[in-house]
């Protein structure tokens, strides 16, 4: 798939199944991620791969965090938290690693991580796989951050769910460029 086709046809796919991307596919996607704009070459990102039984452990972390916030969670809510990481055969955790640099504010480093994730998502799509970038309260919960080994200068940019689309890929909505772009 050529670059422009990949960029203009990538969509988020919530229903993901086996197979997950192979290590070769992942390596190519990470190579694309590592080409993101990066002022002063701080490399303000890193990634964790979660697959197999580790997804169940992540679900247990989500449940523990949920119960810390609300000990009265219903059984249905508890099961939902346990099953969240099982919605895909693989998850990549994108982490912003904030570096102390007088010329590169933290917001620029967060944007670099976002650009890296976008490159990663497009590269995954170009290789025939599907993805969903998920965030929410789980990316900020101290229990989850600690259990995943994040340092105080690190934050989760998202949980990237990966696999094969279980359904026909959604057709992207083509937006009208002039609705968003104007001359100054």
Tell me what the structure shows.
This protein is of the alpha+beta class and 184 residues long. Helix content is 38%, strand content 18%. α1 packs across α5 (106-126) and α2 (23-33) runs antiparallel to α5.
The value of Rg in angstroms is 18 Å
What is the mean predicted local confidence, pLDDT?
A: 97
Number of helical elements: 6
Question: How would you spell out the order of helices and strands?
Answer: HEHEHHEHEHE
**What fraction of the residues are assigned to beta strands by DSSP?**
15-25%
Class of secondary structure makeup: alpha+beta
Number of domains: 1
CATH architecture: 3-Layer(aba) Sandwich
Structural topology:
Elements: H1 3-9, E1 16-17, H2 23-33, E2 45-51, H3 54-69, H4 75-83, E3 90-97, H5 106-126, E4 130-134, H6 142-147, E5 154-165
Antiparallel strand pairs: 1-5, 2-3, 3-5, 4-5
Quick description:
With 184 residues, this protein is α+β, with helices and mostly antiparallel strands. It has six helices and five strands, in the order αβαβααβαβαβ.
Keywords:
5-stranded antiparallel β-sheet, alpha+beta, NADH Oxidase, 6 helices, 184 residues, 38% helix, 5 strands
């Amino acid at each position: 798939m050529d670059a422009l086709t990949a960029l203009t046809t990538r969509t988020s796919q919530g229903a993901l199944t086996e197979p997950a991307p192979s290590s070769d596919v992942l390596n190519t996607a990470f190579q694309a991620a590592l080409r993101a704009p990066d002022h002063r070459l701080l490399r303000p990102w890193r990634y964790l791969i979660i697959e197999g039984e580790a997804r169940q452990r992540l679900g247990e972390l989500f449940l523990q965090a949920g119960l810390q916030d609300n000990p009265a969670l219903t059984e249905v809510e508890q099961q939902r938290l346990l099953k969240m990481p099982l919605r895909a055969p693989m998850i990549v955790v994108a982490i912003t690693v904030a570096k102390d640099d007088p010329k590169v504010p933290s917001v620029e480093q967060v944007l670099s991580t976002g650009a890296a994730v976008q490159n990663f998502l497009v590269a995954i799509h170009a290789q025939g796989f599907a993805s969903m970038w998920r965030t929410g309260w789980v990316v900020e919960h101290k229990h989850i951050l600690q259990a995943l080994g994040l340092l105080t200068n690190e934050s989760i940019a998202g949980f990237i769910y990966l696999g094969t689309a279980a359904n026909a890929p959604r057709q992207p909505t083509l937006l009208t460029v002039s609705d968003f772009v104007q001359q100054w």
